[in-house]
C-alpha cells in the first residue's frame, strides 16, 4: 500500500507524539545504514585512535572496524548537529590540559579529516558535547575537576575557549571524592544553561550560559545536589529538559532529577539501584534515554550488564530488567536513531556487541554481529549519506 504525501505527514505527526524519535520526518526516508564511530583507549599494542564501522539498519550487521583518525585515547566523541563535524577529547594531561580535536566528517564515505586542535585547560578531559545550535562545545575535565566551553566556527574548527570554570569542594567518599571530578557536560536544548556533572562533589553544577558570548556564570544558577556518595557520572536529559536521569557511579544507582529552571529548586525525586542484588566493586558508566523516550539505560561495570528502566507518565522509572551477554566492563553504549539497535562497548572485553531492542519491553537480544576492537569506550552514529 502506498500512502499519499498528506497521509504520510499525518501519520508521522501522530507517531511524533506517541513515539518521538523513532521515525524520520515524513519526507525523509529512513537511512539504510549508519556510520558508527568508536572512541577508544590507545596504547602500544592497543587501538590507535577513532575507529569507524558501518551498521546495516535493517539487519544490524556491523562491519569490521577500521582506523578513521589516529588520536591519543579519544575516550569520548560528539557529533555536530549538522553531521558534518566530529569532536573528540584526548584523555591526557599537558601544560594546558588535555587535547580537544575537531574533524570534518564526510557522511558519504565516513572519512574524518582533522581540522584543528585545542587544549581543555584542565587535566584528563573525558567528555565532550555540542550545543543543539552547533555553536559551542562543552568539555569535562575529570582530573582537573573543571569545565571548559569552546566556540565552534562555521567551518567546524574549534574556536576560542570562551569559558573555564574550576570546581571546588569535596564529598562523602574519601577515596574518590576528596576533590572535584567533572565527568560529563551538557547544554540545555534552548542553550540557556550549561551543566557539568561532578562525581567528586555529588552535584550537577548548573551555569547560566550566554550563547552570544560563550560565557558561563557559576553564580547565577543553583546546582542539583545528588545523594551523598552517589558520585554522579553521566546525565540523560529529557527532550523538554524538565527531567533528567543521572547515574551514580559510586553507589550503582540511577537518579531521576526534576529541573526547575525558573526557580532553581531542582530536586532528585527518585533513586533506584541498577543492580538486581549488590555486586562488590560494581560501578555505573553511561546513562542514556531511548529515542522513543520510553526507556532509560545504565551500564554496570562489575555486573557486566545494561540496566533497563521503563519511563512512566510522571517521568519516574520502573526497573524492567537487564541486558546481558558477551559484555565485560561496559563503558559508553548507544542506540541508533531508529531505536532498534544497541551497540555496547566492552572495554575489558575488547568487543562491540550488537543487540536488537524489543520496542515493548526495552530489553535487548544479543545478535551475532559483534566485532572485535581494542578498548572501545564510546559509540556515535551518523546516517550514511547517499
**Structural class determined from secondary elements:** mainly beta
Strand content: over 45%
The tally of helices reads: 1
Q: pLDDT under 50 segments (min length 5)?
A: 1-23
Kindly report how far apart the N and C termini lie: 25 Å
Question: Could you give a short account of the major beta sheet?
Answer: 5 strands, antiparallel
Oligomer: single chain
Radius of gyration: 20 Å
Helix content: under 10%
- The best one-word shape is globular
Average pLDDT over all residues:
93
Number of strands: 30
Provide a descriptive summary of the structure in words.
The chain has 386 residues and is mainly beta. 4% of the residues lie in helices and 48% in strands. It contains 1 helix and 30 strands. The protein has one helix spanning 5-18, and strands spanning 33-40, 49-56, 66-70, 76-79, 85-90, 99-105, 112-119, 125-130, 136-141, 146-152, 158-166, 182-187, 193-198, 203-210, 215-217, 224-225, 232-237, 243-248, 253-258, 267-273, 283-289, 295-301, 305-311, 317-323, 330-335, 341-346, 351-357, 364-366, 371-372, 376-383. Strands 12, 13, 14, 15 and 16 form a 5-stranded antiparallel sheet that branches. Strands 25, 26, 27, 28 and 29 form a 5-stranded antiparallel sheet that branches. A 4-stranded antiparallel sheet has the order 3-2-1-30, with no helix packed on it. The model is unreliable at 1-23 (pLDDT under 50).
